[in-house]
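Q: Got a minute? One more chain.
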Amino acid sequence: MLSSLTFSAGAATLVPIRLGLIEGLSGPFGNAGEAVARNLQWAVERVNARGGVKLPDGAHPLELVRLDSKGNAEEALSVLKSALDQDVAFVAQGNSSAVAAALIDALNKHNQREPARQALFLNYSAVEPSLTNEKCSPWHFRFDAHADMRLGALMDVMAQDSALKRVYLIGQDYSFGQYVVRRAQELIGQRRPDVSVVGQEMHPIGRVKDFLPYATKIKASGAQAVVTGNWGNDLTLLVKAAREVGFEGKFYTFYGNALGVPGTLGEAGVDRVVALAEWHPNVGGKASDELVQRFRQRFPKPEDDYLHVRMQVMVEMLAQAIERAKSAEAGAVARALSGARYDGRTLGGLGQGVMRAGDHQFIQPLYVSVMRKAGSEGVRFDVEGSGYGFRTLRYLSAAQTELPHSCKMPAY
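A: Always. Here it is, folded:
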């Protein structure tokens, strides 16, 4: 368990408001889970450092509770039950859309069955679109742009590359990875009918140790670019294998800006790895630069350099919703969070964002960025001590990223 209580002795006696992190903290994606834990730990510490969450009976500290799902849905449901038995009213997860879908279903049933012990699900990175469309829930709030929003931004950049004629699609073989490959093919056909998809591949998630056979097929296909939603070690090992076989094309990725990818590719990734996020360390401005510097002071090891603003925003918006509701009861907080706006201009230059009430999808700006050597124009900060960082290629405002939804939000 992680607990970040920087209160005076008197204030620390109030009951903490507990946020349960349900994530794969061990196993093949343990590094990705621990990276999330550091972000949420720091966000909790920052709330507590300014006095905690203010309720009518006083200021309550936030407390982060670590719950290891080992990266699978069955274990995630088991630790969810444990969290609910401990009266944890807020749970966070993101590193698997399949796990997220299972948690949403479980919480829907639990909250209906036990109205006195309801809980909210805060999702920071499970981006399969159905989670805020046909599977939407009043108890689920997503703080990351979903796959259609992300792909739309990437395709805007791809469409401008007139030299691009051949693309290879590869993804992890589960709901999210399947969706990205299928939808990318559709969007390429719509926006660049002159571009051929020369290969389409699904691989087991978290089980492939050697991606050389996949990289060999990519190179042999004549592809000039790869589009992938891969994350964690599945992305790092893929780009490593591509480098080893001499593939010289581009990588259009959702998550190519961290967790070992820049360091793995080195100079071979310059101008070739394109990533997408709600923020990156080189967006510029005093607030953004200070955010990077403070995070690196808190976590100075290069391998711990994984800062995502959306995870900070998620905790900030939770604290604000609790204060507006004047209660830490899940139903009251859900109503306060639904439709809530957030002004992140002082937090890393995020800009304006809103938790859309109709589907509980956070609408926020996005940045498409490309890997460059640190110190080059627009790249003040590297990532993970690699000597390489990312420069903005395209900025999309919140209004530009917003897409319609098909959610028919059930009542609380």
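A: The first strand starts at residue 17 and ends at 23.
Q: Perfect, thanks.
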